User: What shape does this take?
Amino acid sequence: MKLIVGLGNPGRKYEKTRHNCGFMVVDELARQLNIPVDQNKFQGLYGKGKVDGEDVVLLKPQTYMNLSGDSMIHFMNYFKIPIEDVIVVYDDLDLPVGKIRLRTKGSPGGHNGIKSIVGHLKTQNFNRIRVGIDRDKFIPVVDYVLGKFTKEEQPVLQESIALASAALKLSIQEDFTKAMNKFNQR
Assistant: This one.
């Protein structure tokens, strides 16, 4: 069984903000796979389905970004999902809008959602897809990540959401390393 976790903040106020790229990718993947993410358990919205015979759980923690690990660890324990079958999708200030980067490990940097997950897992070794949101050195980070994408960024954002969704599908159908090799070359 695979667990795909998209990070973000719940509620309309945060719906289209930069910090919610993880939610956006999970929503797109759910649409493509026809897996509704509408069940509520362990402080998360989730949906469960099958992809090519593989059980898949799509999760959007509803704990707010800083406590994402709280919800995720409950799902891992409940469904008995090992860490190697988890993929976390989240926004990254150090990548330009439109770029994604797949990794099997790494520090949280300044990302509080990843800090929460690392704290619960007690390791930095887990699969992740970082979705670029760029950085604006003139706007405080908190204001920037909670801001919305510009009209000009929207088409590029949609490309990165499509790429991340394709990488996730390949990870489910084959494996994460194959997806990493294919999508990190772009």
Observations:
- The two ends are 28 Å apart (CA to CA).
- The chain is about 35% helix and 20% strand.
